[in-house]
Amino acid sequence: MSDPLTTDLRLPASATSNVPEDMTGRPRRVATGGISLRKTFSAFKHRNFRLYFSGQLISFTGTWMTTTAQGWLVYQLTGSKALLGIVAAAASAPMLFFATWGGWVADRYSKRSVIVVTQICSMILSLALAALVWTEVVQPWHIIVLAVLGGITMAFDMPARQSFVIEMTSREDLMNAISLNSSAFNCARIIGPSIAGLLMAHLGIALCFLFDGLSFIPVIAGLLLMRLPRKVVRIDSNTGPIGQALEGFRYVWTHPRVLTILSLFTVVGIFGWSYSVLMPAFARDILHLGANGYGLLMAGSGVGALVAALTVASAGHMLPTRTMALGGVWIFSTTLVLFAFNKNLYLGVLLLAIVGFGVVLYFSTSNTVLQSIVPDQMRGRVMGIWALIFGGMIPLGSLEAGLMADFLGTPATMAIGALICALAALVTLNVIRRREAQLGTTAPRVGA
After folding, report:
1. Suppose 329 and one of 43, 132, 150, 425 were both cysteines; which one would form an S-S bond, judging by CB atoms 3.0 to 4.6 Å apart?
2. Which residues pair with 31 in a beta bridge?
3. What pLDDT does residue 8 have?
4. Dist CA 428 CA 155 (whole Å)
């Protein structure tokens, strides 16, 4: 049995093709063939996914407007790099305590219903922040409290959303759907910060949060308009809710392939993704930029991420997953080191575009592989652990980055985190090759 990060999926041109069995013993089928416009957008043949995608594109734009504006607001109110990390940690830390339950809820109840509830809660929180800023009474503790409540909501939203993709599409279109959803996220990553920068500079920061609140309406409407088959939700277990929730951890620990993917994700979450927390400080203190320049930097990262998402959507079925996943980490790490010591705005935008490309290449590939090899009845709980790592490790990374930046400076902190990620990817490659040797298999691969 080959490792998902070692399997070369470049197969002879045909509609679909068998790939090695996963842990469930069932052969997987993936789309194969050359690159074409039809294949790039193959998931759009599913009406439910089209509804979901269009709503998400609008909502993601609002989310990135809030992400951009919130970091700027915190730094404007306090001037503290450490508080940037604290707010980011407050938004993610609740997932450390609730994501496991979120995964269980996703496996136990209708995923659509769970997502509708979480989207309504998120809308209320965004409108509340807009009101606080509009009335000029906002304080840092308000932002922290709302961030914590948003993190609790996200702990239930993320496992349901991640594991819902396959129900809207099909197993054959899973990689394409995940990549297209990532392209919507990163298209918004370009548009959202740019709009936020203009609003902050000319009309006021409160409008960013107001738009975000209203942007949840299309998502909720799209979910309610979906036509889904009636599905019996069942967890095959004789244990109670706590035991069922913890079964996800037992599954991960006893399946080395899943454990390998999540281990690397943990390291990248702590030391890599935290670079985004420091962007307001880097823009203001290192590049001496205002709100417009900060928005341009964030948009640059989004351009590269969008290109990566479309690359995976169109050519992901042709490229070896090991090359895409580990190569994405190395691209991200190398370019982030260069960006950390750059002093030019336009070169910085270009470098951040390459950083964004590497990040999404890694995340899209690893997410797809993980969902592909996990059985249906366990997918919500495994994605709950994915969210748990996202929520538990990224807050640690945010705190580490904020505190370290106060002592070592923002550039050095970014560079150190990037180098640790590159080393972790190298260790992961060594682990995979050792496992191949132990299994006595030689997986075909390109560029190795």
Report:
1. 425
2. 16
3. 36
4. 27
pLDDT number for residue 435: 80
Task: Please check whether residue 68 is in contact with residue 295, taking contact to mean a CB–CB distance below 8 angstroms.
Answer: yes
How far apart are alpha carbons 381 and 99 in whole angstroms? Answer: 9
**Tokens of residue 63, six digits:** 């989310």
Token pair listed for 7? 């399997």
Which residues have a Cβ under 8 Å from the Cβ of 398 and sit 6 or more positions away? Answer: 84, 85, 86, 88, 89, 92, 274, 277
Give DSSP secondary structure letters for 54-92: HHHHHHHHHHHHHHHHHHHHHHHHH--HHHHHHHHHHHH
- What letter does residue 275 receive in the DSSP assignment? G
Rounded Cα distance between 58 and 54, Å, is 7
Give the whole-angstrom CA distance, residue 196 versus residue 205.
8
Return d(Cα 59, Cα 178) in angstroms, integer: 16
Domains of the chain: 37-227+240-439 (1.20.1250.20)
Taking the C-alpha atoms of residue 385 and residue 360, their distance in angstroms, rounded to an integer, is 19
* CA distance linking residue 73 with residue 415, whole number of Å: 25
Closest CA to 279 of 257, 302, 248, 263: 302
Query: Coil, strand, or helix at residue 195?
Result: helix
Bridge partners (DSSP) of residue 30 are 17
Which amino acid is residue 396, in one-letter code? L
251/259 Cα distance (integer angstroms): 9
CB atoms under 10 Å from CB of 181, counted, come to 25
Compute the distance between CA of residue 193 and CA of residue 186 in angstroms, rounded to an integer: 11
pLDDT of residue 179: 77
Longest Cα pair distance anywhere in the chain, in angstroms? 67
Q: How far apart are CA 393 and CA 209, in angstroms?
A: 26
Residue 113's CB: how many other CB atoms inside 10 A? Answer: 12
Low-confidence ranges of the chain (pLDDT < 70): 1-39, 171, 230-242, 244-245, 315-317, 391-392, 394-395, 440-448
DSSP assignment string, 133-188:
HHTT---HHHHHHHHHHHHHHHHHHHHHHHHHHHHHS-STTHHHHHHHHHHHHHHH
